[in-house]
Design goal:
The complex is a heterodimer. In chain A, helix 5 packs parallel to helix 8. Chain A is of the alpha/beta class. Helices cover about 25% and strands about 30% of the residues of chain A. In chain A, the strands form three sheets. Chain A has a seven-stranded parallel sheet, with helices on both faces. Chain B has a nine-stranded mixed sheet with strand order 9-8-7-10-6-1-4-5-11, with helices on both faces. Chain B has a two-stranded antiparallel ribbon with strand order 2-3. Chain B is an alpha/beta fold. In chain B, helix 2 crosses helix 5 and helix 3 packs across helix 4. Classes of the chains: A alpha/beta, B alpha/beta. Strand 11 of chain A pairs antiparallel with strand 9 of chain B.
């Protein structure tokens, strides 16, 4: 089987989620990549070094700078004439584009796969991860998004792929990029962090959320996450949200502070290796899945913990 | 501008789903069902556009069993003007849903089609994007802000790195994220009024759409369960425990 993996990048760096999609693709067959963007020679050169990669299809055009789905989807659909499976990371980038490719090819997409059982059979989570479905695709071509935490990341070294320039097509023109507000942080990215400290509504304000959690995160070299309640209350920006509809994370250590543990939140973090819960309510559902729990007042515990680590 | 919204009847978000012992799926017998929360946000956004004078008529569409009429009555009670149920007792996959909605859009000619970004049962996150592709329309997915500007609409999207704003020519597809709005509760008088609003019932066949599934579900199982661990009594014990586990230095 020949696969085409959509590379997620920001014009300079290839995102880790791509590497998990490469691993999933390698279980199906030959791995080819697609890079769409503007001035992406550097990204293409880095992509050829990813272990196990063959051809790297590169569409380079000014209108592809922001990789709008309206422009990237027809490009990918065109290349699928020579490929059997299309895989994209199950990130907001991949989720925006892959279903559009699927519809153009009249294929039913398989979302957020957790494993490849055979060429056409995959597992995927449903009901916020409370059930795992094993599904077999009857479509001739497969369109797939890949949950990043479910697959090892392919190595960024050791590959010897070759760049093949492809026609970028033309700008759809019905959608235009206006602006982006991308959070800049010195901390690790949530989805690839080894340690995450995550806060809930119990923090009471944005000031307290940051003044308590940030020093703890800095001490541990951790990323900061949040529950939906904390994001809705404005304590943390939307890109902090961990859960069914936010980010799916699986760090070595997840410290949930002031988070009660709604099933929608658990869906995003229950694959963490070790879960620590700190909550004043000893009956909070988060304790049912935590490896270590501490009942008490987070306003006292968090500074003490930061001091003692 | 006419606005179409899609609403799916799903398990209520407060209910913990139970997997059937025989692996055939999730048990939905005698389980509370509600409108998909993201679709409620879609309905609310359409109503706000109407209140601001941008939308003239709101049509709610659902594809599902006869009981999905309740879901549409909820949309009507919130403020939609009329509803269309494409009735089928079969499970309809996102691709077929998108095909039916595309046919409805061709008939209704809306300026905007607003849908939830995903349904909380199958968690596919596909229909809006597929619908946009089938219609050749632009898409603003995972929206946290929707602002009509003449014959365009500016959509601010929640993306992994933060926020992104795109401007779309209408007609366009928008899918909603959590922060777009907080849906209203329908008042009792509006619930009563909704009973007399028009609700048309159609079938997938009326639109010539083949809903035969492309994915065969071989089995549905429960994920591995995590066991609750120990509670510790103090920060010192917590630090010691973390060191024993080797997760902090």
């Amino acid at each position: 089987m020949k696969t085409l993996v959509l590379v997620e990048h920001d014009g300079a760096q290839i995102k880790d989620a791509t590497l998990a999609a490469v691993t999933a693709a390698s279980k199906l067959g030959e791995v080819h990549l697609l890079i769409a963007g503007k001035g992406v020679d550097g990204v293409a050169a880095a992509a050829t070094k990813i272990a196990g990669v063959g051809k790297v299809h590169v569409a380079d055009a000014a209108f592809l700078e922001h990789q709008l789905a309206e422009d990237v989807a027809p490009l990918a659909a065109g290349l699928m004439a020579d490929h059997d499976a299309f895989l994209a990371p199950a990130t907001t980038f991949g989720k925006n584009i892959a279903p559009r490719v699927a519809a153009l090819l009249d294929v039913m997409q398989i979302s957020e796969i957790l494993s490849v059982e055979s060429d056409g059979t995959f597992t995927r989570p449903i009901y916020a991860g409370n059930a795992i479905a094993t599904v077999r695709s009857k479509d001739a071509k497969k369109i797939i998004t890949v949950r990043g935490t479910a697959f090892e990341k392919a190595s960024r070294d050791g590959g010897s792929g070759s760049v093949e320039k492809v026609d970028a097509g033309s700008h759809d023109g019905k959608a235009e990029f206006v602006s982006a507000e991308i959070s800049r942080s010195e901390r690790p990215e949530l989805t690839s962090a080894k340690i995450i400290v995550s806060g809930g509504r119990a923090f009471g304000s944005s000031e307290q959320f940051h003044s308590l959690l940030d020093p703890l995160a800095d001490k541990l070299g951790a990323a900061v996450g949040a529950s939906r309640a904390a994001v809705d209350a404005g304590y943390a920006p939307n890109d902090y949200q961990v859960g069914q509809t936010g980010k799916i994370v699986a760090p070595e250590l997840y410290i949930a502070i002031g988070i009660s543990g709604a099933i929608q939140h658990l869906a995003g973090m229950k694959d963490a290796k070790t879960i620590v819960a700190i909550n004043k309510d000893e009956d909070a559902p988060i304790f049912q899945i935590a490896d270590v729990g501490l009942v008490g007042d987070l306003f006292k515990i968090v500074p003490e913990l930061t001091g003692k680590l | 501008m006419k606005v179409l919204v899609a609403a799916k009847r799903v398990i209520d978000f407060n209910v913990k789903p139970r997997v059937r012992m025989d692996g055939s799926g999730v048990d939905l017998a005698n389980v509370k069902m509600s409108m998909n929360p993201f679709d409620e946000i879609a309905v609310e956004e359409a109503i706000r556009l109407k209140e601001k004078g941008s939308a003239t008529e709101i049509v709610a569409v659902s594809i599902g069993p006869a009981k999905a009429q309740e879901t549409l009555r909820t949309a009507l009670a919130m403020g939609a003007d009329r509803a269309i149920l494409v009735q089928t007792e079969d499970e309809v996959e996102p691709l077929a849903v998108a095909k039916i909605l595309a046919k409805v859009a061709e008939e209704e000619q809306p300026g905007l089609f607003i849908l939830g970004k995903q349904a909380i049962d199958d968690d596919s996150n596909q229909v809006g994007q597929m619908l946009a592709a089938l219609l050749g329309w632009p898409q603003g997915t995972f929206a946290s802000k929707v602002e009509p500007q003449g014959d365009k609409v500016a959509v601010t999207r929640e993306v992994d790195g933060g926020l992104e704003t795109v401007k779309l020519a209408t007609p366009a597809v928008v899918t909603t994220d959590l922060r777009l709005n907080e849906p209203r509760y329908a008042s009792l008088p509006n619930i009563m009024k909704a009973k007399s609003k028009p609700l048309a019932i159609k079938s997938p066949g009326d639109f010539g759409v083949d809903v035969a599934p492309r994915l065969e579900v071989l089995k549905v199982t429960e994920p591995a369960k995590r066991q609750a661990g120990d509670k510790v009594g103090s920060v010192d014990e917590l630090v010691a425990k973390l060191k024993t586990l080797g997760v902090v230095a």
